[in-house]
Amino acid sequence: xxxxxxxxxxxxxxxxxxVRQNYVDIVTFFGIAAVIVADAFRVRPRERPFxxxxxxxxxxxxxxxxxxxxxxxxxxxxxLRLVLAVPGGVALWLVWRxxxxxxxxxxxxxxxxxxxxxxxxxxxxxxxELYNFxxxxxxxxxxxxxxxxxxxxxxxxxWPVSRAVVAGLWLATGFWLLRAIGRPGVKEADR
Length: 191
What we know:
Elements: H1 5-20, H2 23-41, H3 56-70, H4 78-98, H5 102-105, H6 117-135, H7 149-158, H8 160-182
């Protein structure tokens, strides 16, 4: 469990939010870390898989409906935070219920020359974020001389329509991940 990179990434993000004094994100990131630790110690048989009963049209309809739900909500308010938290809570419950991911049971993907691409992009993104975060004159406000990813995305999310579109795409990504995790016996070649 201590070699799990996701645990250290989530803990690092939690520490950054302690510095920023963003209490909702502190609870969120340290809560995710607690779930990762708890999951490493539990042994449960795999229950009925999920994610296979939804049609593409149904998922698109839910994502569009979700975007329309987000559209009228104020950018910084409790209603928006609750609307954003509910799908994550439902996904956590579904994944926790299943126990073991079908991705863990699948055969490894064939080795290609591009295996380094996504880890490299993520490492560069994290280093960019850390560099700019450390150089900010104040950790509580955005600095456009040293912009973090949230400072770059902030103007886009200020407009209600773009915020709704991003929320709908975020939910669609979550559906895709849940389907990948929840399908039993899916091999990489079948995706």
